[in-house]
Amino acid sequence: MKLQEFKTKFIKLKENGYIPSKRNGPTGIGYTLESSLGILENNNAKPDIEGAELKAHRTQKKALITLFTFNNKVWKMSPLEAIKKYGSLDANGRKGLYYTMSLKPNSAGLFLEVTKTAISVRHTSGEIVALWSLQSLADRFIQKIPSLIFISANTEERAGKEYFYFYRAQLMKGTSPELLENQFKEENILVDLRLHDKGTSARNHGTGFRVYEHKMPLLFKSIKDIA
């Protein structure tokens, strides 16, 4: 869909006010928006509108989404060694590193350190577990989300059914190491370690970089209201 076509259709959708969800549950908002705009649901990874991803969020809720995962050449000690030294048992009795990292040390003594050029998972002993350059994270971010059309919606519940009022569309582009540094320091970007001991190796599900949906605009250099 071309951007101008999207604008025309979105303005008409705004004029309709609250509309009922076309699907129950968390995915109802995205499905309802796309269906109302005439965008067919698919699993294609290509951007929806002229190179921009389309993302809708409920203004009143603070849901978390995963921006991307990134593990390439970041481990400063072997993941299996890190699990054995700093891991804890999960519900299945496996030892693993399943932690959402904070600037404050957790029960294992691990914390997130943020500098001008990098973020790292460290132990209070001074040992560095993993390190990411902010430039590499900015590059990964732009690779995954080169531009975003961010749709805000108010919600109401009527007779047990969710209704949406899609009231704002913003076009967001670009990020920078400086922006990401600030958002890590504000703890608006969360870092999830997700790996466990498989005996002779570590099973890594990918370190997740997550953000609250309503904080998404803080990650972009350029933000413009388009409808």
Written description of the protein model:
- The structure is a single chain.
- The protein is of the alpha+beta class.
- The protein folds into two domains: 3-60 and 146-174, PvuII Endonuclease, Chain A (3-Layer(aba) Sandwich), CATH 3.40.210; 68-137 and 179-212, 2-Layer Sandwich (Alpha-Beta Plaits).
- The chain is 22% helix and 38% strand.
- Strands 3, 4, 5, 11, 12 and 13 form a six-stranded antiparallel beta sheet that branches.
- The longest helix is centred in the N-terminal third of the chain and has 13 residues, at 3-15.
- It is elongated and about 60 Å long.
- The two termini are 15 Å apart.
- Could you name the CATH homologous superfamily of the largest domain? MvaI/BcnI restriction endonuclease, recognition domain
CATH architecture type of the largest domain: 2-Layer Sandwich
List low-pLDDT spans: none
What CATH calls the topology of the largest domain is Alpha-Beta Plaits
Question: What structural class results from the helix and strand content?
Answer: alpha+beta
List the helices and strands and how they pair.
Elements: H1 3-15, E1 19-20, H2 28-37, E2 53-58, E3 64-69, H3 79-86, E4 88-89, E5 95-101, E6 110-114, E7 118-123, E8 128-133, H4 134-144, E9 147-158, E10 161-173, H5 177-185, E11 189-197, E12 202-204, E13 208-212, E14 222-225
Parallel strand pairs: 2-9
Antiparallel strand pairs: 1-10, 3-13, 4-5, 5-11, 6-7, 7-8, 9-10, 10-14, 11-12, 11-13
InterPro entries: MvaI_BcnI, MvaI_BcnI_cat, MvaI_BcnI_rec
Domain MvaI/BcnI restriction endonuclease: 8-220
Organism: Endomicrobium trichonymphae
